[in-house]
Amino acid sequence: MKDDIKKRRSALNLPLLKRIVDELKRLRKIGKPFRMDDLASRLRSAETTIKRYAKPYLSELREELISREIRTSSDYAAWRKDFETFARLILRSERGRSLKKKFYRESIEEIHRNGKVTFSKVFALTRREKGRLAEELTEWERETGNVVTRRDPWRMGTGDLYQDDASSENLPLTKDIVFREFERRRELGLPCLQKEIAEYLGPSVGTISNYGNLWIRELADELLKKNVKTQEDYLAWQKDFLTFRVFLSNTRKRNYILSKYLRLTIDELGRQGIPISYSELSRKTRCGTKIIQSALAEWEMSTGKRVERAQAWKEITLQMVLEKVSPELHELPLTVLESPEMGKPFLPFQLRMLYNLVHPNLRNTAFFVMAFADGNRKNDIRFFTKLDRFLLELNIPDINAVDFNRFLKKIHDKELFPELQAGVVVAFLQSYFRLIRQQENYVRKLTSQQKK
């Protein structure tokens, strides 16, 4: 009786097995990558059942791909099509590692058939792990005797900083190559991130970090030992510090370096005859409150001099702000400017921020927003204050000259102001999109007459 049950089960499963194999063959012919849950939903069967019945077919396909010989570009294209179609299903095994190795090797050989082999070309073709790809390129060089063409990392349209460019074209990526790239950026004064250097030279961020940390530690020791007596010495020291500020902030000696930077800046302010004050030092260094206060206290103790204390702020009134904004904004409907019952009055720190903004159009925008967006005033003030400073540092005339989609993306990707901490960037972006939504809600409430 048990034998009869097994035969019945086997007979019932044969149609499903045939359907699964037929579907896999169809997908292979189409060449469209898929996942197992897609197949399960299409065949209306459990995913575990699909995996069990598809396993023999996938194992045969894996072995076929590993053993298939590739001699031409058309052979590689056909092989690549099968590989990409089933990659999600056939790489998760011990034999899958051999298949992935063959994928890297055949991709390198395909590029070699059509010209010079470079890391960027192979990565563009494979779009997979950079670290593993670098290992495969090194192994391919060792086994075949061919050489991977590497870019000259120190030549970037700025003049020849080194004289051995011709002989260095095919150098393997070593500590010396990474060091020379750091030295190049130091000479040019180009602030950078590990990600940018990794994309420029080719290897992973981890590889750059391993070699780069050695160079940064040497730079940290050099900056701490360097004797700074003149303005020229200070500017040279500051240039090195600002170029690698992000890197130096991750070293064990970051606090000592930052303290020296603050003390050198205080001395430089003294040489220029500028009164030493918290606000001046904060503006020059962009450091945190605690470390600035500590540096100023240490300077007072060591020199016997006193820090200039800020004088009491003069009162800024709404009328003083209205004199600096466009007349059209003096009576905004549905706000406190129309009636005290319509909203919350401007607070002193809001008025001070609006009064001190440098860019007129930005001030008009901030005033307009502050009139109806009164729920998160501290973050709004930080947003407009930072935006005003960003425009000044980038020499942008005013807010109407900014393409905000590109501007915010560059801040998010750290192409602009890479020294900003992640939390500051997040708060800045959140404030922007929150204010946009509140502006839309405000405009939606206005009547057609009020909009005019």
What keywords describe this structure?
flat, 22 helices, mainly alpha, 452 residues, 3 domains
User: Helices and strands: which structural class?
Assistant: mainly alpha
Averaged pLDDT = 80
Structural domain tally:
3
Give the H and E element order: HHHHHHHHHHHHHHHHHHHHHH
What amount of the residues lies in strands? Answer: under 5%
Helical fraction equals 55-70%
Shape: flat
**What gyration radius follows from the Cα positions, in whole Å?**
32 Å
DSSP summary, beta strand count: 0
| N-to-C CA distance | 89 Å
Largest sheet: none
> How many helices in DSSP terms?
22
Pick out the low-confidence regions: 4-12, 152-172
Q: What does this entry look like structurally?
A:
There is one protein chain. The chain has 452 residues and is an all-alpha fold. It has three domains: 12-144, no CATH class; 171-303, no CATH class; 318-451, no CATH class. It has 22 helices and no strands. The protein has helices at residues 2-30, 36-43, 47-67, 73-90, 94-114, 119-126, 130-144, 175-188, 194-201, 205-225, 231-243, 245-248, 254-271, 278-285, 289-303, 318-322, 348-356, 360-372, 377-393, 404-412, 422-445, 448-451. Helix 3 packs across helix 5 and helix 5 packs across helix 7. The protein is flat and about 85 Å long. It starts with a helix and ends with a helix. The model is unreliable at 4-12 and 152-172 (pLDDT under 50).
